[in-house]
């Protein structure tokens, strides 16, 4: 125990099961294929990001979830993430919607 003081109570306010989704899915393969089509030199690489996501709710229900955001950020945009002026370009929104639509079409129709 790190805190060995009976006068201190620790209450867990938020705790979640470890969240991992396999990469051996049609969805992951669609993400790789569509991403490669739009960004030929890119690679889709699983990673663990610090912070919070709602994906654990889906994973706890057995639904595969990935934190995929199809954006190409300039260094200035990347520096704004979670800042007071967080935003992305209109072009990133347009391109991102197109990429996600193609991923959904690949999963549903192929």
Task: Describe, in plain words, how this protein is organized in 3D.
The protein is an all-alpha fold. The protein has one domain (26-109): Orthogonal Bundle (DNA polymerase, domain 1). Helices cover 40% and strands 0% of the residues. It is built from four helices and no strands. The chain has helices at residues 26-38, 55-60, 75-79, 90-109. The N and C termini lie far apart (52 Å). The mean pLDDT is 87.
Concise overview:
This protein is mainly α and 110 residues long. The chain has one domain: DNA polymerase, domain 1. It contains 4 helices and no strands.
Helix percentage: 40-55%
The CATH topology comes to: DNA polymerase, domain 1
| CATH-derived architecture | Orthogonal Bundle
| Count of discrete alpha- or pi-helical segments spanning 4 or more residues | 4
What's the rounded overall pLDDT mean?
87
Radius of gyration: 19 Å
The termini sit apart by: 52 Å
Quaternary organisation: single chain
Count of beta strands: 0
Structural class: mainly alpha
- Provide the low-confidence segments as ranges: none
Can you tell me the number of structural domains? 1
How can the largest sheet be summarized? Answer: none
Q: In sequence order, what are the helices and strands, one letter per element?
A: HHHH
CATH class: Mainly Alpha
Residue share in β-strands? under 5%
Shape: extended
